[in-house]
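Appendix B. Raw example, untouched.
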Amino acid sequence: PIPELLRSVRLMNSEKVDMILIACITASYFYEDIIQECNCSIVHPVLELEEYLNSRYQSGVSVGIVATSGSVSSGIFESIAKDDKFQVIYLSKVKQATFMDSVYGLGGFKSSKPPSAARQKLQTCIEELVQSGAEIIVGGCTDVSLAMQKRAMPVPYIDLIDIIALSAIKFYYK
């Protein structure tokens, strides 16, 4: 994906944009490659999440991550756990497969009208994280943001799309 990401950055450079928001969490893994070509600020969702958590929660809080297998395996969320400030909890392999099916499977969130079955699969993933000790759930995939029913959450939910939107607002009103 790097050539396409860099093509997009060059296009934005030519348009003299002030800021790029990386909305795809998986794409933020390539931040170091992107920043080399960029002439503006880039909002990195995981770095913004880290700042958000540090400003609002005390050390020792367990953070459950609902993200794609690519994001999880890349280790992108490990910065949250640096200095043992927060404990990061991931889905088990079985529930990770369930989550991926809820996103990419037939009738998943990427389909035009995801059925309640996809939302139910997501809910079972969240339940596993809470049972594993998560005190906060982070939607580490934009598809989670689209499907999440925040009212039904048993613990606080942090939507990375909300976090980067707040960062953009702060940037433009500073």
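End of appendix B.
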